[in-house]
Structure formats: structure tokens, C-alpha cells
Amino acid sequence: MRVVIYSRVSTDRQVHDSQLQEVRTYCDRRGWKDAEEFSDTASGAKTNRHGLDALMALVRRGRVDAIVCFKLDRLGRSLAHLAQVIGEFQTNRVALICTSQGIDTSATNPAAQLQLNILCAVAEFEREIIRERVNAGLKAARARGIRLGRPSTLMKYLPHVRALREAGKNVSEIARELGLAYSSAHKLCSALAERMM
């Protein structure tokens, strides 16, 4: 068996250790030595990941018999992407084994296939719930008047704009003198006018 191990964490603050320990132990129990390992530190929503891309290249060249990972959501959280990846595994006769979820498609097993499809749908549902909560939180913050996003860097030009306006310069001249886009200079002049009211 040509076996590949795949692990993924979402951020640099997380480590692969617990996933890899369980998966390596599983491979040892099955007698699969010398399993090649691929890993990523990226969101599961990203379809392009260095480790996964390298793994898929081996799959497409027929150099893998089985892929072992800790959980299905380590491969991805988008139902469409998971379906595509799993479809490629099936096309290339590559088994998928998720050690913590009891998924093993190395044998023709209808129960494992059903479980796999259900888990794909649950992973997508979970992701949509999280997205919905985040969007609701952002909407509530906006309703409370909280300004979101990075702070504007334009306001540092306001003292210069004030001096140029007092010197009788128009918006075009201010934009040219400060090296700003016309729209940015216009925004600053408007902000200045509002403050002077």
C-alpha cells in the first residue's frame, strides 16, 4: 500500500501534533510504514493549499493507494470542494480513511460511503452556521455605530488640507500637491468642511 498522511490546522497558533500522533499510530497498527506526510496551515475553506495540491498531484499520477487523515474537515469544509476531492479519490481508486470518524473506503463498503456523504453535508452546514453568526455579529456592531475595518489613513492629511484650503487651493491643486487621488482630496475637503460647520 502506498499511503499518504494529510493534516491541516487553520492558524499558526495551532499545531499538527495531536492529529499526526493518532494517524501515525493508526498506520502503524495497519502495518503501513514509510507513509509520506503532507500538511497545511490554512483555512479549510481555501481550495488551493500547498500540501493538499502536492497530495492531489500524486493522486492524479496514480502514486497513492490510500489517504489517511484525522477528520474529514481537515481536507476541507466546503461541500463542493470535498465532493470534488472525494470524486478524484474515487476516480483514481484511492481510499480515504478518517481515523477519528471511522471512515474507511478502502473496501467497497456502502455504509462508509453513506457516512462520508453525510459528514460532508454536516461540515458544510457547520461552516454556514458559523458564517451566519459572524454576519449577524457584524450587522449588530454596525447598528451600534461601531466602525469596522482598518482605520482610514487619509485623516493624517487633514492638517495639510486645512493649510492648503486656507491658502486658497482648490481640490485638484490639493490632490496634486499631496500626491493623492482627486477622490481622496475631495473626501478630505468635505470632512474639513463638516468639521468647520
Note the topology.
Elements: E1 3-9, H1 17-29, E2 36-41, H2 50-60, E3 66-69, H3 79-91, E4 95-98, E5 103-104, H4 110-143, H5 158-166, H6 171-178, H7 182-196
Structure in a nutshell:
The chain has 197 residues and is an alpha/beta fold. Helices cover 52% and strands 12% of the residues.
Q: What sequence of helices (H) and strands (E) makes up the elements?
A: EHEHEHEEHHHH
**What percentage of the residues does DSSP assign to strands (E)?**
5-15%
Task: Describe the global form.
Answer: elongated
Oligomer: single chain
| Whole-number mean pLDDT | 85
Low-confidence stretches: none
Q: Could you give the count of β-strands?
A: 5
Instruction: Identify the strand order in the major beta sheet.
Output: 2-1-3-4-5
Largest sheet geometry: 5 strands, mixed
Give me the Rg, rounded. 27 Å
DSSP helical segment count: 7
Structural class: alpha/beta
Task: Give the distance, in angstroms, between the N- and C-terminal Cα atoms.
Answer: 77 Å
How helical, in percent, are the residues? 40-55%
